[in-house]
Amino acid sequence: MILKEIFRFLLFLIVLNFTISLLTAIRSTDSVYLLADSGMKESDLQELQKKNSLPERTVSISKSIFLLDFGKTLSGENVTRIIFQRLEPTLVLAVFSILVFGGMAIFLSLLSIYSRSPHLGNALSHFSNSILSTPIFVVAVLLFIVFFLELSLFPPGGYERGSIAYLVLPGTALGSRTFARIFLLSHSECKKELESPYITILKSRGFGKNIIIFKYVFHKILPPVLVFLLLDFSSLLSGAMIVEEIYFYPGIGKATYSAIKNMDENLLKGMLVYSGLIFYTITRLARSIQSNLIQKSE
User: Fold this and answer.
1) Which of 16, 95, 102, 117 ranks highest by number of CB atoms within 10 Å?
2) Is residue 74 domain-resident?
3) What is the DSSP string of 196-208?
4) Which residue, 188, 183, 189, is CA-closest to 219?
């Protein structure tokens, strides 16, 4: 089992290395074309292109991954230090979005089942589908207009340690999609569980509705819901470029956007390695937790 996991991780690193090499090579080629108009000598341009060849880039990225040293940005800052500086605000935003909106989705799905009213469940399902069909930048802009420009309830962006006010708008924009996905999943799973033989036996033994829904049904739907929550968490922890750029939130996503816009190869390389490792690690963790929870519930 351990050897299989090690092999899977090494294979992932190979694919990640090749992907990053290809992407950074494309951005570097664009940079060379721009430098061609700057008056550089032809010999210097040829030397730059040679250094940016795909094989040499692959070897360089392999060293960067294992040594966690991605060099410096175009402005002279250490890339690894930037990643650690941006990690805190990104982690805080991800935790806020997942806990508040994921928890709200699970509670409302259980409540809609408990109320036995199809109207609440249907209304929340339509609302969730509407969120998923709306681009996230539209949600972010609407929140910005309503809660900052019109009502002036929350700051327009930025980040201040210990202040929840700076998390509300970007956290709601990101968390809205988490809410929609988790509600649709948990609501569907709740309805299935209520019709299962296990719940029928509990009812026949006189268990109350509160205990059945908020304990046993919740315990049954937890494995798939937890996996989706962890997958959403890994996505948010990898950075949300559009939302972070709209709210000028100093996270991983904004740094990645800056690297792409400024053709900063080292910064882009570091951000892609970070995002890839985070997504792989949390995804594997989610699968492991799911397997353990399923085994315990059986």
Assistant:
1) 102
2) no
3) SHHHHHHHHTT--
4) 189
The tens digit of pLDDT for each residue in 125-138 reads 999 999 999 999 89
Please provide the DSSP assignment of 121-134 as one string: HHHHHHHHHHHHTS
In whole angstroms, give the CA distance from residue 124 to residue 103. Answer: 15
Exposure b/e, 49-84, CB count within 10 A at least 16 = b? eeebeeeebbebbeebbeeeebeebeeeebbbebbe
Q: For tokens 């956007």, what's the residue?
A: 257
Same domain, 60 and 129: no
∠ Cα 283 287 293 (to 5°): 140
- Examine the pLDDT at 6 and tell me if it is beyond 80: no
SS3 39: coil
Q: In the structure encoding, which two tokens stand for residue 226, read together?
A: 């937890």
Residues 30 and 101 placed together within one structural domain of the fold: no
Start-to-end CA span in the chain (Å)? 22
Q: Determine the pLDDT at residue 44.
A: 47
Q: Which position has the token pair 């492991």?
A: 288
CATH code for the domain in which residue 147 is found = 1.10.3720.10
Give me the pLDDT at residue 127, please.
95
Residue range of the domain that includes 37: 2-67
Are 120 and 224 part of one and the same domain? yes
- Rounded to 10 deg, the angle between the 2-35 and 54-67 helix axes is 130
